[in-house]
Design brief:
By secondary structure, this protein is an all-alpha fold. Helices cover about 80% and strands about 0% of the residues. The protein has 26 helices and no strands.
Length: about 675
């Protein structure tokens, strides 16, 4: 029970850290979590956490890097392969050499091999920590992709360098040729292992789907287990488990191009599930770091043979040395190719170089590496200055986080999107639509090409409408407010007319009830009470749990669906009644809008009249070829579901990055709720 209580406390601490960050947003979440971790370590608990570095890597690093690999921009990663390798390999090994000799010169009690081990532990950067900083980082896209690619690759090179340094320290034997060959074998072997295991997994999934096992819960469980299995198998084969899960994650990104209905549902559930997993793991990494700090500091503070102020001085000096080496490497990496006119990253920019240098925050891999240093050497003697090395590594993690938290927000210029100007709002709205179109365009297949083009045309139409908007912010806000009130009035008109038709016997009760469900959903969307991102995930989860917890109800639902399929004429008759009801309501709405139209409100009412006409035209087209359009409509619905989820994620990311205000984010979500109701309103009707 002690460990169970401890886990609950850790999870509660993650929740508290995010609540605290809302009140002090200028302090990064990792720093808050480290501080709370220190408090947890000081609590009089019956259970004391002893960190196992190997377990730490497989439990935290493997799924985090697998998820990063899935989300990475594959094209950008390939285009920037040379700069990424220069940072992930070149900078890591330069850091090991320079910092290793520097530490050995500054602290002679730390042998050269042990100094190299410390430098190797400090070499990898932590993208998780950078992404969690509260400062708004405004880097060009290519530099952002460069940092993401570096974070994916440098963990492996840093860990391999660390392992060789530790082996040299423990055995007293080191061969540069042997180390180089082993590094190539471990790195290439890890990539091949990840690709082969992922290929086997895809074949296995294809086989179980051929057996009719389409359950999303089962497939989601397999996906969660994937990074752990791949990492453990790779390590058993003595190749890089880190690179294996990265390669597997990137290969999984290609799977999203197969947009059949099953894959669409799995992607929606996967995004929600992985967001929770990554949220918890990111928090636990820094809380665990905080729980380890008191013991680490206490040992060094009491008896390390070095004064406490010297330890602080060493930590600061090593931290600034790491930043300085990174700055020089990055600046030269831009300058030299620029002089040779072959630089993909553009002209060297001092501000961008400084931001990129400060973004090299150390974190989870550094901690895991330092704590895995053995207690004794091969001859049985204690590992020299082990506690001091771990303390310095922990201090550098803290210092890099503090420096980045303090300086990055100052250096990061405020984008036009952070202002409340109408031009900035217009730019952000266009950016959201453009991102959705680009993402859908990357995932077009032969099966969904026609449906995807239709959805993309819808978004292009929205972009054209946004570009035609009046720049006068006050006038536009007044028009939006009046249109919003009028949309609510339209819903009320439709409800009144539905009730009138039902009373007159011109509409069946079943059709009226279903159409009223659609109107209720529309009213919720207009009132800002539509589905949030978490609400949408919750809806999917509830459906899955209902299938598991209430199999009898699920069976009855299946029987009703089967009965409906056996009576297609009855079903089509009901759909026809609903369509007739909707057409009658649309005509009433159009008449009422025309009656309200005058010279002073044309800007408010004409867009709604045109929107109403498009709905009527669409219904006439659907009435002419219902059966022939069924397959196309299902494909379009799948793509629309994907587009809505992409748009929701883009809005959330822009808000978290500080590029849009809370009010604009709320407005965009409210508009999205409205579009979502238009897209899937037919589900409510059917």
């Amino acid at each position: 029970m002690d460990i169970f209580y401890y886990v609950l406390i850790m999870l509660a601490t993650i929740l508290i850290s995010n609540v605290v960050n809302r009140f002090i947003p200028f302090v990064s979440i990792p720093l808050i979590q480290i501080g709370l971790g220190v408090l947890v370590a000081c609590m009089p608990l019956a259970f004391e956490l002893k960190l196992n570095p190997e377990l730490f890597l497989v439990l935290f690093i493997a799924p985090l890097l697998f998820n990063d690999g899935k989300r990475t921009d594959r094209q950008a990663l390939w285009n920037l392969r040379a700069p990424i390798l220069m940072l992930a390999l070149g900078l890591v090994f330069v850091t090991v050499l320079v910092i290793g000799y520097f530490v050995n010169w500054m602290i002679p009690t730390i042998p050269l091999a042990a100094a190299f081990a410390l430098a190797a532990a400090l070499a990898p950067t932590d993208a998780v920590a950078v992404g969690s900083l509260s400062g708004r980082i405004d880097l060009p896209k290519k530099i952002t992709h460069l940092l993401e690619g570096e974070a994916l690759m440098n963990d492996a090179s840093g860990l391999v360098a660390f392992q060789f340094a530790i082996a040299a320290m423990v055995t007293g034997v080191f061969s540069i040729w042997s180390a180089s060959v082993s590094f190539v074998i471990i790195a290439v072997g890890g990539i091949i292992c990840g690709l082969v295991l992922t290929f086997i997994k895809f074949k296995f999934l294809k086989w179980i789907r051929s057996l009719g096992m389409e359950d999303v819960t089962l497939h989601m469980l397999i996906q969660i287990l994937t990074p752990f299995v791949i990492y453990l198998v790779a390590e058993e084969l003595h190749v890089s488990g880190i690179l294996a899960v990265v390669a597997a994650g990137i290969m999984h990104a290609f799977e999203k191009r197969k947009m059949d209905p099953m894959t669409v549902k799995l992607n929606v559930v996967s995004q929600g599930t992985w967001s929770v997993i990554i949220f918890v793991l990111n928090g636990l990494v820094f809380i665990i770091l905080g729980t380890q700090l008191p013991d680490i500091i206490q040992v060094v503070w009491q008896n390390s043979g070095v004064s406490n102020w010297q330890v602080v001085f060493y930590v600061l000096l090593i931290t600034f040395s790491l930043i300085g080496i990174r700055f020089l490497w990055i600046h030269l990496g831009w300058l030299i190719p620029h002089l040779m006119k072959g630089n993909d990253l553009g002209k060297p920019n001092l501000r961008a170089t400084v931001l990129t240098s400060l973004s090299g925050v150390r974190g989870a891999v550094t901690l895991a590496s330092a704590l895995s240093i053995p207690f004794v050497l091969g001859d049985g003697s204690p590992f020299p200055q082990r506690s001091l090395i771990i303390c310095i590594a922990s201090g550098v993690i803290l210092c890099s986080l503090i420096i980045a938290t303090a300086i990055l927000p100052i250096l990061a210029r405020k984008d036009e999107s952070q202002s409340d100007s109408p031009r900035a709002e217009k730019s952000m709205k266009l950016s959201v639509c453009r991102h959705v179109v680009e993402q859908l365009n990357r995932e077009i297949t032969s099966e969904n090409k026609a449906a995807t083009q239709v959805v993309m045309d819808d978004y292009r139409g929205r972009m054209r409408a946004i570009q035609k908007e009046d720049i006068d912010a006050g006038k536009q806000r007044e028009i939006d407010k009046e249109q919003h009130a009028l949309r609510l009035q339209i819903v009320e008109w439709e409800k009144q007319n539905t009730e009138k038709l039902l009373t007159q016997g011109k509409a069946s009760k079943q059709a009226a009830n279903r159409y009223n469900n659609y109107l209720d959903a529309m009213e919720k969307a207009l009132s800002g009470r539509g589905r949030s991102r978490s609400g949408m995930m919750g809806m999917m989860f509830k459906r899955l749990m209902r299938q598991v917890m209430h199999p009898k109800q699920w069976q009855k639902a299946k029987e009703r669906m089967s009965e409906m399929k056996q009576n297609p004429e009855q079903y089509q008759e009901m759909i026809g009644e609903i369509r007739d009801l909707r057409e009658k309501n649309t005509r009433v709405v159009n008449e009422n809008l025309m009656a309200l139209l005058n010279d002073t409100n044309q800007a408010v009412i004409w867009p709604l009249i045109n929107e109403n006409k498009r709905i009527m035209e669409q219904m006439r087209q659907e009435r002419g070829s219902i059966k022939s359009r069924e397959k196309f409509e299902q494909a379009k619905k799948d793509v629309q579901l994907q587009a809505v989820q992409i748009e929701r994620d883009v809005i959330q990311n822009l808000f978290e990055q500080g590029k849009i205000s809370r009010d604009l984010a709320r407005e965009l979500r409210q508009n999205l709720n409205l579009y979502e109701t238009y897209y899937f309103g037919n589900e409510e009707l059917a």
